[in-house]
Amino acid sequence: MSIDQKFNFNFDIAEPKQKNNIVVFFLSSKEQMKDNFLAFPDALQNNLVEVEEVSEKGFVGNLRISNKSDQKLLVLGSEILVGNKLKQDRVVDETAIVSENSTTTLRVSCCEKNRWSPAVSENISLSDTLFFSKARTNNAEDIYNSKQNKTDQFRVWEDIDEKFEEYETKSFTSSVEDIYKKRTSNVEEIVKYFQPGENDIGVVFGIGSRLVSLDVFSSNKILKIYLPRLIRSVALDSFKRTNYKTYLKTKDVHKFLRLIEHSNKRIYKSTTGSLGDYLRFSDQLVVGSVLIYKTQTIHFSGFLKEYSTTPEYKSKVA
Fold first, then answer.
1. Which of 48, 107, 147, 193 has the lowest CB atom count within 10 Å?
2. pTM for the model
3. Cα-based angle 302, 306, 312 (whole degrees, multiple of 5)
């Protein structure tokens, strides 16, 4: 699939599917990129990537990442790195592509503010969820507005603190991973319900009757890898919503896309060692970015800002 700077979207939007409060529209296209990307979860599981602090002292906003494979490595924005090998858990700021057999710096934010020390056991892994959707939206907005293309670390911590308050729970180190662990059993039934078709390359999420986010990938293979993590991310923002039948229709997704199409756009060359260029967009109602490599869209993420108008609910689900 290819999306040019004018956002000529060339995919089909499926009818909505609903489970509990979560609504999913799958996006399909027969024009899939024949990519050879190695997704970060697979790379970490097969010991094809190494992640460590940039130095013995460490730096909150950066990690060193080494791709030890013969494939380009795809690291998705909002992936959460956890474990005692790092001085604290981190969330990836923005999607990046790392060249074959190379080492570069990954831009990250802290998502465990009360720890700054590795433990004796040097374990490291990826969370089974991405950063929750409200925080993803805020991070995208902060990156767009920042001259240094950075997130607002204080807002990241505020978003996490609000989530702890919402769930009336606590964590000794204020780790966002602890929020997810307390909700794991509630989420997996939803994850299993939504299964993409062979031509699906993207997904639009809603909670109740409000659209939340959109993620489009270069291929069906990459979507299948990240879909469970995306569902868990959205689910972390949906537990306290009453279970109603949704108002959302495919026309609402078209409206979402038109908002993105008419938003303000800026093109940035990557400066952190990642391959490709970023096309970032923002407006009163939407925000997001596209990572483009050799004219192909690798990851397109868009978010509807929380203060945008929300349709009324229709009726309770039986």
1. 147
2. 0.91
3. 110
